[in-house]
Structure to design on (641 residues):
């Protein structure tokens, strides 16, 4: 049992695209009517415009590490303009200034973050006073409202996106080995790491990729929530010391330090490292993070950021003494030589040592394959293949698939191809029995909810079936209980679709389709009808029965191997085509029939289960029937194209 304490911080968060349009309402909600905008550039302008008459002054001079002199200049504007609300827009620098003013004045603060720093959801303020960075935490520091607008992040340059994204990853990484770690924050942290690692390469490839930007912004928020929720460790301490004392750029310092801080802590935090490696899809967390940063051309060397080599011992000592003054949690004991070694590695930018037992380095391999699709002339093809490869690699890795198992899988697919022919579609069967056809079908259906649900096509459709007249008998004399089918085709408003072409096909009494019966010379139990002026088609057939899908091929072996039965619930197939409408492929299932709950291709939908009621009175279409017969009545609704 894992006991824990979890504290959440009260802020109101709006997330989306175009959310800045709601700023006037949000300012009003905070009781503001005279806003000071802390921000500059295009994003500052965008917010200024949206505020309209609510914006009374702009302060564009926020500076990194929030020097108090700058805060004092901004404070001087408050009285001059009668400011009653702060809106900060930008990265951690603008948010920091907003916090510094808010905690001194009690003014409400609405943050519009345009990077992934996450500061907007923390009650923590870092300021520089006389060259040294100090940090304090208070509820009044937390912005009341955060408006995340993905559109404002599209222009964030790739290098800044990478540095800021890794900064966010650092919050999530250190949260996982924090002594106050808890399952809620763990969940946020792992989601943030996986999402950021997935989004940054896509942003580097196409900075205007809205989906990738959305993922990164959400990851930044989650990671910020981790930072707010639990104590950070050595990595954050080092970044503060280096930023405050040596004036290194904050986010870039994170990219250079993080892999080495992780390598330092790895022996003392094996569980966290395993989870991080898993989220990154690699065998080893520190090298996984390093490789990600290197692949994105992010800074990996403190030296390249301007840190003098001769200052490394002083930096190590400062980190240690500052740690003694304000202790911070770290899984591994901090020693002077340890920190100095870590800083030397980070200064040189070398890749951390990969532990011998880390397993193969698959992250790089996967990335190489994924990158190989980047030039695809059809971007959809490239994106689908890239994602397929990610999932396949992950499947092989997480299941530790052996060579023998993989060769078996290849042989299985080879046999699936070899047994396939125009009349035997084993790949369709495979897709159906794995439920993939039904997943695709469910997605398709969800786009036209007002129409009749579709159902899988199955392997027994033969195109161009024989045309039949209204009232015809399609059973070709095969034995079975007679069934009168009387169905209508309508559009969503209930208007008949006259002239719709309706193909029907079904199995015989023993569960076989005509194409499975070598003794038959022509088509049976399949036909094409044309709907009349009322959208109706009518014909005689026989009651369908449950049947096993073909079991003499690889798919049959697969079902046997897992102890699954091969049966489909009894049904009739319909394919409905009409000019100006979407084609509908569906099935009607016999209410009360066998296997409705365990159809082997997962094809049954409640709306498609229909009463095949016993027939009463004279049989339709002038037919003489000896004994019982049934009737099926149904109305199909098809969607406009
Ligand atoms: C069918 O209903 O004809 C069918 C559908 C999927 C797999 C096998 C058969
Ligand atoms: Fe069928």
């Amino acid at each position: 049992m894992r006991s824990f304490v979890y504290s959440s911080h009260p802020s109101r968060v709006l997330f989306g695209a175009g959310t800045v349009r709601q700023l006037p309402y949000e300012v009003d909600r905070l009781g503001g009517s005279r806003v000071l905008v802390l921000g500059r550039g295009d994003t500052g302008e965008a917010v200024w415009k949206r505020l309209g008459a609510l914006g009374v002054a702009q302060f564009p001079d926020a500076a990194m590490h929030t020097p108090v002199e700058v805060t004092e200049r901004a404070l001087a504007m408050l009285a001059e303009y009668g400011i009653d609300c702060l809106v900060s827009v930008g990265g951690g620098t603008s948010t920091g200034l907003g916090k510094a003013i808010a905690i001194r004045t009690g003014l409400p603060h609405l943050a519009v973050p345009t990077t992934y720093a996450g500061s907007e959801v923390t009650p923590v303020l870092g300021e520089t006073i006389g060259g040294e960075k100090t940090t304090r935490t208070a509820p009044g520091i937390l912005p009341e409202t955060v408006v995340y607008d993905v559109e404002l992040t599209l222009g964030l340059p790739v290098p800044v996106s990478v540095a800021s994204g890794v900064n966010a990853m650092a919050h999530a990484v250190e949260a996982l080995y924090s002594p106050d770690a808890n399952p809620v924050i763990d969940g946020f942290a792992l989601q943030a790491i996986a999402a950021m690692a997935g989004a940054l390469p896509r942003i580097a490839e196409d900075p205007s990729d809205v989906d990738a930007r959305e993922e990164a912004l959400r990851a930044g928020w989650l990671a910020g929530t981790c930072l707010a929720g639990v104590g950070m460790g050595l990595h954050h301490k080092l970044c503060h010391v280096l930023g405050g004392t040596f004036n290194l750029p904050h986010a870039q310092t994170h990219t250079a330090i993080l892999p080495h801080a992780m390598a330092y802590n790895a022996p003392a935090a094996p569980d966290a490292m395993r989870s991080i490696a898993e989220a990154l899809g690699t065998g080893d967390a520190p090298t996984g993070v390093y490789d990600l940063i290197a692949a994105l051309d992010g800074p990996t060397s403190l030296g390249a950021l301007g840190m003098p080599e001769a200052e490394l011992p002083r930096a190590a000592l400062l980190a240690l003494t500052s740690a003694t003054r304000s202790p911070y949690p770290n899984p591994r004991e901090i020693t002077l030589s340890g920190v100095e070694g870590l800083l030397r590695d980070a200064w040189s930018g070398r890749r951390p040592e990969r532990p011998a037992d880390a397993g193969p380095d698959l992250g790089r391999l996967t990335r190489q394959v994924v990158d190989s699709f980047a030039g695809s002339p059809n971007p959809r093809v490239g994106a689908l293949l890239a994602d397929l490869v990610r999932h396949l690699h992950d499947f092989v890795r997480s299941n530790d698939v052996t060579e023998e198992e993989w060769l078996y899988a290849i042989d299985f697919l080879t046999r699936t191809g070899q047994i396939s022919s125009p009349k035997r579609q084993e790949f369709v069967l495979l897709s159906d029995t794995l439920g993939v056809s039904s997943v695709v079908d469910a997605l398709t259906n969800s786009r036209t909810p007002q129409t009749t649900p579709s159902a899988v096509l199955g392997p027994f459709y033969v195109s161009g079936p024989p045309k039949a007249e209204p009232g015809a008998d399609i059973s070709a004399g095969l034995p079975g209980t007679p069934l009168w089918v009387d169905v209508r085709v309508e559009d969503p408003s209930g208007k008949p679709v006259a002239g719709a072409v309706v193909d029907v096909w079904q199995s015989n009494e023993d569960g076989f389709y005509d194409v499975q019966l070598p003794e038959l010379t022509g088509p049976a139990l399949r036909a094409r009808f044309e709907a009349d002026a009322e959208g109706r088609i009518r014909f005689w057939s026989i009651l369908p029965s449950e049947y096993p899908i073909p079991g003499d091929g690889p798919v049959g072996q697969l079902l046997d191997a897992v102890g699954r039965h091969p049966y489909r619930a009894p049904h009739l197939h319909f394919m409905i085509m009409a000019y100006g409408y979407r084609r509908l492929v569906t099935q009607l299932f016999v209410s009360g029939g066998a296997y409705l709950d365990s159809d082997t291709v997962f094809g049954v939908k409640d709306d498609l289960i229909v009463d095949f009621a016993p027939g009463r009175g004279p049989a339709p279409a002038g037919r003489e029937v000896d004994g019982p017969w049934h009737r099926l009545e149904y109305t199909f609704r098809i969607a406009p194209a």
